[in-house]
Amino acid sequence: MTAEERQNLYTFRDYVTKILDPTYILSYVAPWFKEDEVQYIQAEKNNKGTVEAASLFLRFLLELQEEGWFRGFMDALNHAGYSGLYEAIENWDFQKIEKLEEYRLLLRRLQPEFKTRINPSDILPDISECLLDQECEEITQICSDKGPMAGAEKMVECLLRSDKENWPKSLKLALEKEESKFSELWITEKGAKDVALQDLEDEEMKTSEVQIFYKEEPECQNLSENSCPPSEVSHTHSPMKPRGYQLELALPAKNGKNTIICAPTGCGKTFVSLLICEHHLQKFPQGQKGKVVFFAVQVPVYEQQKSVFSKYFERRGYKVSGISGATAENVSVEQIIEDNDIIILTPQILVNSLKNGTVPSLSVFTLMIFDECHNTSKHHPYNMIMFNYLDQKLGGSSDSLPQVVGLTASVGVGDAKSTGEALEYICKLCASLDISVVATVKDNLEELEEVVYKPQKFFRKVESRTTDRFKCIISQLMKEAESLAKSIFDTLGTITLGNFSQIQNRNFGTQKYEQWIVAVQKKCMVLKMPDKDEESRICKALFLYTSHLRKFNDALIISEHARMKDALDYLKDFFRNVRTAGFDETEQDLTRRFEEKLQELESISMDPSNENPKLKDLCFVLQEEYHLNPETRTILFVKTRALVDALKKWIEENPKLSFLKPGISTGRGRTKQNIGMTLPAQKDVLHTFKTSGDNKILIATSVADEGIDIAQCNLVILYEYVGNVIKMIQTRGRGRARGSKCFLLTSNSDVIEKEKINIYKEKMMNDSILRLQTWDEAVFKEKVRQIQIHEKFIRDSQSKVKPILDKENKKLLCRKCKAFACYTADIRVVEDCHYTVVGDAFKKCFVSKLHPKPKNFGSFEKKAKIFCARQDCCHDWGIHVKYKTFEIPFIKIESFVVEDIATGAQTLYAKWRDFHFGKLPFDAAEMPK
């Protein structure tokens, strides 16, 4: 080491001490340190903290005179995972680390919010690459030992010391994925350092109810060169002739290489997979057989792919079958796999079968095809399957592994800002799928462009209302409700409503206000008082006030994007439901206040001068397009189910547009606010839209659930709707007819900017793929292998830490009124995922009402809903089902507060999996005869 390097290390010591935890590298540099020096450093950390320990470590380090210590120090940084610090010292350039300072400042300011809002276990897998492996283990252990708040505190400490330049963005993506309200506070763009002191914009984008997994439906209309619409399919068999670009896409996989096929929606990737599958099965010599598994993420796609594969292969003498979540209960997975050549599965079926040993290993297959393979990340079932594959590969197993083929319209680029970062993201996806080739169309581009029409993209910035009397009245009702809630706190003395949330300067009708409501509501639920009756009364009243505030806020958001009439109908429905359940003095007072304003609100909502300018613009676009082409078929994408209903009513009641006869399609997922469409209803709507000329427009919430893929669709409208680059490519791909158009309508210029960024990212993705395709195959394989080894190390490290079960008996209290419900000792688990309560005592704590939509699911028959038995509460606790010969309740943990019997401490859990207590399986012997 030169004197200059020693001086530089001393000069930049402040950067080093802010990042380095010396105890993580002591084992690597021990040869240069005396034993007592190592002990001093460890003691300094325990007594004074990490920064002081790092300062002492540097002092000892700079005093060393032995040869090689500097290189030993650098190697230690590299081995421990301090890649950012290593790079900075190697080049004596700390600019990247310096740029992180504003995010550290922001995180320090937001630390109280982070601790109360974030469950570290939910986001750790997504930010683990920004932390050291040892830090990940420590966070997991602290969560297990001391709970999520202590774990969140440790996570903040680790992030503040992170030297990874992408940690602020990775944290943002992880928060958005978990739909955390904290993500609105964590701003990673320029000016982030001031965000904690500023009010967020009122026009924030409302989070869309869109799943994080995107997909395409089988492209039946472009299967082959001689394809024809379903209605015209001949009953006599004629071999389908592949197009040139389809042969080009299939070639690497037909040569036996693990391949991602990345090609536009509508080009016939399904047919390409048929070609690959057929070639694969035919290549086996006499006496040997191949076995193919094709994965489809969603049940509608599974059903269509099963139909396509069956028609194509059964006439060729191959056996095709399939299993989905809807049919798994009645079939033997093992038998289906053994008896068939091609098996179509929803991926969770195989995940479960590998876990329980029904399928011993992936070696039973010779080819695996992943539809929508871009989902192979995080905890998606695709990744669970590939973890098994990679463990087998890297573990040195002698069993042969199946060939892997992935299909997608877009591999995506994640949060990449450059082609280099995009390339890294794509390499990571390739590593997850063990890919050696990314196949795209290059030699037959002209032919592809003749088949797949890329719609024109238009951006329209529309105006919002200039005056809004409706908003003024609802805002006044919200102020009154807030004032009533504050008056309760005034009686408590030491606690105020403001103390319950760090969010300041919140405005009505914004997502930020909803964040505040959620934060306050959660704090109210675990409010403790010496007088338990008083605690119950106050918690229930606060629950009611915050619930009403949330509904008012929802109504303002609906009014912003649709009609005032729709927002008012939403509130009238809510108050109608309030009257039918409990309806105590607090609810009566709030209902009276609303009804006093109802006539005025009715008058305002019916006034034509209050028409929403956004809807005027939407009407203009639709009229213009149907005037130019009366045969236009439209898909209108919106963010929420409430907007789907509102816009359907608006179109039906608008004489200029009623001829469109809108159909609607919303996801099957359930939220606290809405119940999704059933699968049969969804399929009926899509079938009608595809085959009938009656519905000229389909209003949908997302491409995630529906698999909408209509070749004749020539107009796509995104109404205040934007996502990532994958979603942009998929939604745009719905407009597949020649001359198709895609409009983005929004009053928020940020939405337009985000969509333009997506267009740039699409180009960046394509450039990255082209660059990747120029790499030497051996170089690419080694890159993939190194990523796989690193990811496996992280997985193995995380799997070593198991949550510690709480064996103490605890109480479950109604989350609304704090009435006692049951003890954890009486809870039993039915079929691994449903929770019931045994014993007669619990039966007195709830009342049952017939379920409005009784139905069978799996081995259960849903018969009734159960509610808190207190007449002034009636909080929803779950359902009553018939299981085998028993009628038992199923409770949901989000309806309860968990109270420690010894300390009285109260905790909220959103999901059962977060509640680590001794879970006993349901035993029929415990049930009364």
Kindly summarize this structure in a few lines.
This protein has 33 helices and 24 strands.
What does this 3D model show about the protein?
The protein has a seven-stranded parallel beta sheet, with helices on both faces. Strands 8-13-12-9-11-10 form a six-stranded parallel beta sheet, sandwiched between helices. It has six domains: 90 residues, Death Domain, Fas; 85 residues, Death Domain, Fas, CATH 1.10.533.10; 208 residues, Rossmann fold; 168 residues, 3-Layer(aba) Sandwich (Rossmann fold), CATH 3.40.50; 131 residues, phosphoenolpyruvate carboxylase, domain 3 (Up-down Bundle), CATH 1.20.1320; 117 residues, Beta Complex (Metal Binding Protein, Guanine Nucleotide Exchange Factor, Chain A), CATH 2.170.150.30. It has 929 residues and is an alpha/beta fold. The N and C termini lie far apart (82 Å). The longest helix has 30 residues. The protein is built from 33 helices and 24 strands. Helix 10 crosses helix 13, helix 11 runs antiparallel to helix 12 and helix 20 crosses helix 32.
